Amino acid sequence: MSMEDRITELEIQLVHTQRVCEQLNEIVTELSLDAQRREREMKRLADQLKDLKNKATERGGDLEDERPPHY
Hints:
Layout: H1 3-58
């Protein structure tokens, strides 16, 4: 294999490696955004649950003792 062939092969491998790195970066970015969205949703749900518990306590009851509406 000539020196020129080896350099060409290395350039091809470098381009492939750069492409894979870009794809991985896109995936990591997507996963990060998804994790942030889930974190906001979990906080919203936790706040909602906290509000429900506070309302139940104000009424003098406990959510665990409350009967579902279909009873």
